[in-house]
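Sanity check

After download, print the first record. It should look like this:
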Amino acid sequence: MRLLWTRRALGIVIAAAALTAGAQEAYPNRPIKLVVGFAPGGGGDSVARLVAEHIGRTLKQQVIVENRPGAGTTLAPAAVAAATPDGYTLLLAPDSVFGPDKVMWAPNAKYDETSFTPISKLASTFFVLAANKDFGVRTVAELMAKARADKGELFVASTQGLYPALIMENFNRASGLKLNQVPYKGGAPSVLAVVSGEVPVTFAVPSSVMPMVKDGKLVALAVTSANRSALTEGVPTLAESGMRGFDVGYWFGLAGPAGLPADITQKLFDAASAALADPAVKARLNTLGYEPAPSRSSSEFRSQAIQDGAALRKIVETLGIKGN
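Expected structure tokens:
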């Protein structure tokens, strides 16, 4: 009798172990939530939905995009940071969540760079310096000459936050001018303000600017990236235009809560890599004004996220940039 029960107990243990292993192998066995800190319809949201659809097909499970804008985009990262690290709650992670948010948006940013498991970089973009077609400038040199003739000041339409402030500071230092920021609630309103002549120039992402440039409503003067881009064919960099070393852009990545198991991280990394290798995804990202930026491994992305986040955090602390 004792031997019989021992065998039965052993069988139960083996069965339980098999079920546990099977459950682990089954990831994902229910829908995955991808949390986005931006409103529907914007660039970040569009990137998230594009990647989510492809990852869902690869993993044979639905990936649902949940928009949680507000509090300076800190609501979404805070929600993911507090989630169970089981692979079912993920974040479309801007580079700012890995350090500078904690400084800019304190006390709203209830997370820092240790709150997440970086999975893969997804896409990157930059900004375009563009002017109203009737402002009378076609190059950065002409813009600077015009500004100097007008007491060295220039009003610039932009959104609020880290990158507009960073661009303004770098531009002011490199040019000796004083850019006065005219903040708008989004990239589209700031661009429309320049098209209408309300403000003469703007820094905005390619997807907001280039359609207006093609329609002859704006003039693209330069890009903030270190190198020229196919997204803005023929437009020189600010570095080429006399501002040596000028390089400002940003990226989105995929992340989960801290403590995400290595096997789930790898499975998600592989699915994200497959998405970014798809020519249709690449083409759509370009249409949205982004360039695919796949990582070679999740560990590479982790290193980059920590390095970029630390550099941005130092800039924010030095310049005293605060979110509005």
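If your output differs, re-run the checksum step. Summary of this record's structure: The radius of gyration is 23 Å.
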